[in-house]
Amino acid sequence: MNVSRSQTPGKPIPRLYVNVDHVATLRQARRAVEPDPVEAAAASERGGADGITVHLREDRRHIQDDDVVRLLGSVRGALNLELATASDILALAASLRPHQATFVPERREEITTEGGLQLGAVGAADRHLADAVRQLVGAGIRVSLFIDPDPDMMAAAASLGVQAVELHTGAYANRHPDAARALARLRVAGERARSLGLAVHAGHGLTYQNVTPVAAIPEIEELNIGHSIVSRAVTVGMERAVREMRALIVEARVD
Q: What's the CA gap between 19 and 56, in Å, rounded?
């Protein structure tokens, strides 16, 4: 596995992880064998992706267990496995040991992940997440938490012993009248996370039209983007779609 970060002198470029969940969504619509997310992942890497992200949901609505196994055997870069704390998925992750696991909140009735994990409240849910983090860290897996860009959440994440946080960019991507304020929150949260020794990732709702300001935030070292790239790939192909997104991310740091 070759995990690297493209860069220009003095200006690190965020890694681009391509989420291929919705390639599997199209396949599962017919319970067919195509399109294959493994083939989409290979095309993404040819287009410049640094890694591949998949979300193995409890209801298996798109990515299946076998997809994760096959991806681990085929991706040249890193595999980021998104998951909740369901015991069977935790056990699978611990046994397969992907490069990275990102804990996300999950509700069966949601169309897509609607917000970040809520950290800091005293209760069974927090203890369950802490136990899950310890299980995967103990298996040698790099662990990240998908959380809202709230500075207070950064300290709570650091206290759980994770290596990274992924900032939920949905408020920036979806609330156009408040985009500037949402972007400022991402900047502040990124600074706070970095000051606590956490690696800073970001994702959700990022598109070709809105990715540049987020990619320009200096603390962010990894972007997870899926739906927009897969949508573009329907008309231009996966390699070109990834290459175009990669160019925007590079341009954001160079400029």
A: 11
Q: How many CB atoms lie within 10 A of CB 214?
A: 25
Among 45, 82, 106, 222, the one annotated catalytic: 82
Residue 148 near residue 184 (C-beta atoms within 8 A): no
166 is catalytic: no
Q: Average pLDDT over the chain, rounded to whole?
A: 91
Catalytic-residue membership of 204: yes
- What residue ranges do the domains of the chain occupy? 16-254
- Catalytic, out of 22, 55, 62, 168: 55
User: What element of type H or E holds 246?
Assistant: helix 238-254
Taking residue 157's Cβ as centre, other Cβ atoms within 10 Å add up to 28
Q: Where are the beta strands (DSSP E) in the chain?
A: 7-8, 11-12, 15-19, 51-55, 78-83, 100-103, 142-147, 164-168, 199-203, 220-225
Tell me the per-residue pLDDT of 85-113, one tens digit each, with 9 for 90 and over.
Answer: 999 999 999 999 999 999 999 766 555 56
Contacts of 234 by beta carbon, 8 Å cutoff, 6+ apart: none
| Contact in structure between 107 and 73 (CB atoms under 8 Å) | no
Q: Quickly name the fold that domain 16-254 has.
A: TIM Barrel (3.20.20)
